[in-house]
Every structure is written in C-alpha cells, then in structure tokens.
Design a protein that fits this description.
84% of the residues lie in helices and 0% in strands. It is mainly α and 454 residues long. The protein has a domain of 311 residues. The radius of gyration is 22 Å and the shape is globular. It starts with a helix and ends in a 15-residue tail after the last helix.
Length: 454
C-alpha cells in the first residue's frame, strides 16, 4: 500500500490541477451559454482547433520535463535547469510559429462552420487563443521543471491561482460588468490567455528564486552553445513525435466535432455539453499520465527498469480506479449537470436532456479504458518510446476511428451512433498500448546521454 500512497502523493496535485483546468473550461462555457447559445456552440470547435495547433508545440516543450526527470533521477540538478532553459528556448520559437498559423486556422473554420454568425465567433475565439500560444508553451516549460523533479504541489497552487483569476475575469469580460465592453467569446479567450501568462510569470519567478539548480551545482557557467544546441536537438528528437501525437489526436477529435456539428443544433449543443463534462472527468487522467511519465523518467535516469515498470503498473491501477468512481458519480449526477447547459425553452429542454443521458452512458463506457491508455502512453513517453505512441495513435484514429465515423454519418447520422464509434476506438488503442508496454521495447531507449554539459 505504501508505494501506491507515494505515487498518489506525487500525482494528486497534477490530477487536481487538471481538474482545475477542466473546471475553468466548464465555467467558461457555462458563462458563454448564459451569454448566447451561439457563443456556447462556437467555443468547442474553436478551442479544439486552437489546441490542434498549440498542442503540438506545447507537447514538444512539455517533453523537457522528461529530460528533467531523467537528470533528476541521475542526481544532476544543473542539467535539470539547463533542460528548463532548452524548453523555454523552444517555447519562444513555438510562440512565433503559432502566431503565423492564424490564417490557416481561419481558413479551416471557414470551411467547416455551418453559418456566418457561428463562423465569426469561432474565428474570434480561436485567433485570440493562438495569439497567446507563447504563454501556453512557456508556462509548460516552467511547470515541467518542477513536475520533472517531483515538485508537483507548487505547480498545482500556481495553476489554481491562475484559473481562479480566469473564472473571476469571465463575467467582467464576457458580460461587460462594471461598464466594461461586452466581449462575449472574445472575453472568455482573453481571460484564458491572461491567466496563462500570470501562471508563467509566477513559475519563472519560482525557478530563479531557488537559483535554477546552478547555485546548487556550485557553478554559474553557461553550457557551450554547441552542447546546448545538441540538447535542444535531442529534446526535439523525442518531443516532436510527442507533439505529433497531440496534434494528430486533437485533429482526429476535431474532425469528429465538425461531423457532429452537422447533425443538428440541439444535438450539437447536447454533444458539447457532455464533452465538457467528459473533459472534467478525463482531466485527472492527464495528471496521472504526467505522474507516470515523471516516475518512469526518474527510474530510468537511475538505471532502474524494474522500478520503472512497477511505477507504471501502480499508476495505471490508481488511474483506473479513480476513473471508475468518477464515471459512476457522473452518471448518477447526470440530470443535475445537464440542466446547467439545457436551453430555457421547455420544448427543447426535454429532448436535450434525453439525448444528453444517452451520451453520458456512452461516455461512461470508454472512460476507464481511456484512462488506462492515457497513463500507459505517459509511461511510454517517459521512457522515450514517443515514436510508437505517435504511430499507433495515428493508425487507430485515422485507420479505425474516422472511417467508422464517416460510415456512421453516411448510414445512420445520429449522435448516439457517432459517439459509439469512440468506444471502439478507445478499446483498440488501449489494448495496443498495453501490449507495447509489456513487450518492453522501451528498456532499450536512451533519452539522455551520460555526463553533464561542461
């Protein structure tokens, strides 16, 4: 029991931090639902598409945390700080590249939005989120410095502070409280960017306040440029597949969202509502995945593959149990949760609630398997097996899931049938990830080179 408690001690701030992010998104969309149904409908496709672009770069930067974990396991604290600097350098370039992708995002939205008012709101929300892409990536670099070393509580409290400010800003910017302009979806996006920038600033202050590890190492020398560039290149070598995993996963989900958008306004609103709840329930699993990634990375940094395997197995068990409890609780609270998103018109509310319940049941079918797959992917990434994670997800998403989605849309274009395809997808991808971990290919991968930069 003690090893499980130690893992839970590391993971719970990460899991609560992810729940905190989900609560923030829930609040954003609840405020937007009160502002207008069109604004609420615009939020999901716009935010999803923005994360297709931002998520790629964020995942690359986040991989600096794996390097931090490996060096922390090897007791090389100076290299932990150098890895943070390498992640921040990648974040700076990423911010400029994300900003350059705004026209591409606008073009995609123009090809998918069913009518003009929705398109305008989707573009407004997405463009602001992309403009703040640097803060997302830079905040991830700073967070990864602490999570890679197992200091997850600080990250949680900073995340809680930022998201509380986000929620507090929402009514002022969305509805125009205190004589401020009524910005609608733009206000929700501005609040999100502002809270992310604040989190980044606080975490960077914390990094340099403790000396960044260089004082601990007894030297303030900077690594030679060639050696630093080699570290950045190695980080990109492992991080780019992790980023591609993120973007391809989000891309497949975005295609799914756009397909569901064409079913009908009421059906799409119900789907958006349940997906918002799904993220709230799934969010802790991302925290467990980061925990598995960190524990596996630290164990591999010490050269202890047996401990890496045990840490991954125990984290999977904990995540599955938490997902099961959350699924049961969500289904029990389904009517209360859906009522927060239901239209005020009584004639529309009843079919909205009925469809929402069906989608809740389908969500419960995949949540536990999704949790297991997410944690296994985190463990594989922590061991450096990022190429497999990318290629397996790509095959399952584009070779299995989306063909099923298109077939379902052509033969029986209803929301429950479309959602049923996701159950198949999650089961297939989970079994493949489990088989890869058991095979043990990850044991032969070296993420970091021996020796520190001098």
């Amino acid at each position: 029991m003690k090893p499980y408690l130690e893992i839970f001690k590391l993971v719970w701030p990460l899991a609560l931090g992810m729940i905190n992010n989900a609560v923030m998104q829930f609040a954003d969309r609840a405020f937007l639902a009160g502002y207008s149904m069109t604004a609420f409908e615009a939020a999901l496709p716009a935010s999803t598409l923005s994360w297709v672009f931002v998520g790629f770069f964020q995942a690359i930067v986040a991989y600096s945390g794996v390097f931090v974990a490996h060096y922390h396991g090897a007791n090389d604290r100076r290299m932990c700080f150098v890895s943070f600097k390498a992640g921040t350098a990648i974040a700076a370039v990423s911010g400029a590249l994300i900003l350059a992708l705004v026209p591409a995002a606008d073009w995609i939205l123009g090809k998918t939005a069913p009518y003009g008012e929705l398109l305008a709101l989707e573009r407004e929300y997405c463009d602001i989120c992309l403009a703040g892409g640097f803060f997302v990536c830079a905040q991830m670099a700073a967070s990864s410095y602490f999570t890679g070393r197992g200091q997850t509580r600080l990250v949680f409290w900073v995340n809680l502070l930022g998201n509380a400010i986000n929620i507090a800003l929402d009514p002022f910017l969305i509805f125009g409280w205190c004589s401020l302009p009524r910005l609608g979806v733009a206000g929700a996006a501005y609040a999100t960017v502002a809270s992310t920038a604040l989190q980044w600033a606080v975490l960077v202050f914390a990094v340099f306040r403790e000396g960044g590890g260089e004082k601990v190492a007894g030297t303030v020398r900077r690594p030679p440029k060639r050696e630093f560039a080699a570290l950045v290149w190695r980080m990109l070598r492992f991080g780019v597949p992790a980023g591609a995993y993120n973007v391809l996963s989000m891309l497949s989900f975005t295609v799914f969202v756009f397909v569901t958008e064409l079913v009908g306004d009421l059906e799409f609103a119900a789907s958006n509502a349940v997906f918002t709840v799904n993220y709230l329930l799934y969010a802790p699993m991302e925290g467990f995945a980061i925990g598995a990634q960190t524990l596996v990375g630290q164990a591999r940094g010490r050269g202890d593959d047996k401990e890496a395997a045990l840490a991954a197995r125990r984290t999977v068990v904990l995540a599955a149990l938490v997902a099961l409890v959350l699924s049961i609780a969500a289904i029990a609270a389904c009517p209360l949760v859906l009522s927060a998103f239901a239209p005020s018109d009584a004639a529309l509310k009843q079919p909205f609630m009925a469809l929402g319940f069906k989608l809740f049941m389908l969500m419960g079918c995949w949540l536990v398997m999704d949790a297991v797959d997410t944690v296994l992917c985190g463990a594989l990434k922590g061991a450096g097996d990022t190429k497999f994670v990318m290629w397996w997800m790509s095959f399952c998403a584009f070779g299995v899931w989306l063909p099923l989605v298109w077939a379902a849309a052509a033969l029986c274009n209803t929301m429950p049938v479309l959602w049923s395809t996701m159950v198949v997808y999650v089961v297939v991808i989970c079994f493949g990830s489990a088989a890869r971990w058991r095979k043990g290919k990850w044991r032969t991968i070296a993420v970091v080179r021996g020796g520190a930069l001098t």
